[in-house]
Amino acid sequence: MIDTIVIGAGWSGIVTARELAKAGHSVLILEARNRIGGRARTFTEGMHVPVDLGCSFIHGYKEGNPAREIAKEIGTTTYLLKPTAGLILGKAGILPPSIAARLRSNLAAARASALDISHNSHPAPSTSTPLSDVLFAQDSPLFAESPDRGAAISFARTLEVPFGMTLEKASLRWTGWEDAYAGSDAAPEGGFQPLLEKLVEEAKGNGVQVRTGETVSSIVRTDGGVHVATDTGSGYSARSVVCTIPLGVLKGTASTLFQPSLPARRLETIANTHVGILEKLVLAYPSVWWPEGSAVGSYIFLPSQAATAEDPVTPKAVLDLNTLIVASFAAPTLPKQHPTLLFYLSPTPALQLAQFSPEDVAKGAHEFLVERFGVSSPVPAPIASVMTNWHTDSLAMGATTTPSIIGEGRGPLDFAELGKPVWDGTLGFAGEHTDPNHRGSVAGAVVSGLREAERVAKLLRKLNEG
Ligand SMILES: Cc1cc2nc3c(=O)[nH]c(=O)nc-3n(C[C@H](O)[C@H](O)[C@H](O)COP(=O)(O)OP(=O)(O)OC[C@H]3O[C@@H](n4cnc5c(N)ncnc54)[C@H](O)[C@@H]3O)c2cc1C
């Protein structure tokens, strides 16, 4: 009988399998997709260089992120990001440096004030108070010496990109609770998916079996361990299972996937812990045509139109209404510069754009950029484009878990609970959603994989000792 079946070949599953195999255990990975990587997906079609559509940075590279060591062990070169300039664009074009600096420093001060309230106020804020209540309060540092409240609020909405949710949904009480690896960022050469493919090849060399294209459809406790069935009609028995199915997917399947059923409390946590939305839209150009292209690494667009009750009727109208972060790969942030722009889309524009075809979105985004950059000379059309759909991808159902949301009973311990093993330890859980400090990141997936490998190795030793 196999020692451990690992469900899912993303970061967490591969790390779990790799560690268990290194410790001499037999491991089978079952992956539903026909590719390795999960939310690590590197896209090449028509691109100048491979572009990551899921994770793209090892956050906290110099601050202890274990993905750094793994990349080194596997022989993948990583590049620390070089700081490059950023510009903010308002309705009338690029904001003067003094106004841009004011927006940035006010948001930093407002966040620091919210952190202070979240961590130190006594009594602690209610779990139903949203972060937006203090950020947008009348006397918030967000508005200090700033005549334009609308611009300050729109600029604060840049936070909705990494959060994957609106500020009205984020819990004030748990803001900044996590102790995540943060500070420096690095990117692996060639992208994240090839890195994980290399890790899988190494794991195979250590005896790990990998079956792709097999969706696990039931996980059943048996006398000797666990039986796992897949949609191909195959069944596998093992002494233990580590399930790394993303939380967004578990929301739809957890009540029927496991026999016996998961405890009611766990099902409630799965149902009510939030999975966020973050999509990427990439436009590759034949040459750089946007302003200060060789120096500026990111452009923040504030809305040029005020929202109305009606839904926007074109992709360009969606972009006009929202705060957008656009990264430029033409700047020397990474060693290889190329004429590509990448929109990071927070939930509001991402959901609105999802109503249109990818072709229409790319066309609208190009028109938007030409207008907002105010370039009057002819500009080249994109040579290739791609937009992600993580929130409708049936094997992801969202980008990642978000910071804790408002609501009775919600908090960071939800992520610890999602990682607790059941069935006397024979069914474990790993994945970004199972680590309270690093949730939502590569670090969370890696840390949870290391945690589960260590736990399962102990369990197997105990079972061997009889
Ligand atoms: C747009 C975007 C940008 C991001 N940027 C960053 C970043 O820059 N830095 C960072 O640290 N993190 C980033 N992240 C987060 C990071 O990508 C994830 O946290 C991490 O990849 C999750 O790994 P995982 O192993 O938990 O899950 P996954 O990678 O999702 O792996 C789970 C696997 O399970 C498989 N699966 C699902 N259901 C079944 C089933 N029934 N049977 C078999 N297999 C199944 C899936 O196909 C998948 O391969 C980003 C995510 C997104 C979406």
UniProtKB/TrEMBL annotation:
Top-level lineage group: Eukaryota
What family does this belong to? Answer: Belongs to the flavin monoamine oxidase family.
Please give the Gene Ontology molecular function terms for this protein. chromatin binding; flavin adenine dinucleotide binding; oxidoreductase activity
**Domain Amine oxidase residue range list:** 12-456
Q: An example of a Gene Ontology BP annotation on this entry?
A: chromatin remodeling
Protein name, UniProt field: Amine oxidase domain-containing protein
SUPFAM superfamilies in alphabetical order: FAD-linked reductases, C-terminal domain, FAD/NAD(P)-binding domain
Tell me the InterPro entries matching this sequence: Amino_oxidase, FAD/NAD-bd_sf, Flavin_monoamine_oxidase
Q: List the source organism.
A: Jaapia argillacea MUCL 33604
Question: What are the UniProt keywords, alphabetically?
Answer: Oxidoreductase
Cross-referenced PANTHER family, in alphabetical order? FLAVIN MONOAMINE OXIDASE (PTHR10742), LYSINE-SPECIFIC HISTONE DEMETHYLASE 1A (PTHR10742:SF386)
What Pfam families does the annotation carry? Amino_oxidase
